[in-house]
Specification:
The protein is 18% helix and 18% strand. By secondary structure, it is an alpha+beta fold. It has a single domain, classed as 2-Layer Sandwich (Alpha-Beta Plaits), CATH 3.30.70. A two-stranded antiparallel ribbon has the order 1-4. Strands 2-3 form a two-stranded antiparallel ribbon. The longest helix has 5 residues. The radius of gyration is 9 Å and the shape is globular.
Length: 56
């Protein structure tokens, strides 16, 4: 399952986008994952300092 961002928890820091090797994450005010590009590698989950990303 592609990564999902909790917009209430996301601070928009961009750590997840930097960690994403396939550029599946864009950050405006909060991060948004392009499910078509996400490879479900989990790098964004590990990079998020506020644990706003999940794969469930």
């Amino acid at each position: 399952m592609p990564a999902k961002v909790d917009p209430d928890a996301c601070t928009g820091c961009g750590a997840c986008a930097e960690a994403c090797a396939v550029d599946a994450i864009a950050v405006d005010d909060v991060a948004k994952v392009n499910a078509d590009l996400c490879t479900e590698c989990g790098a964004c989950l590990d990079a998020c300092p506020v644990e706003a990303i999940s794969q469930s």
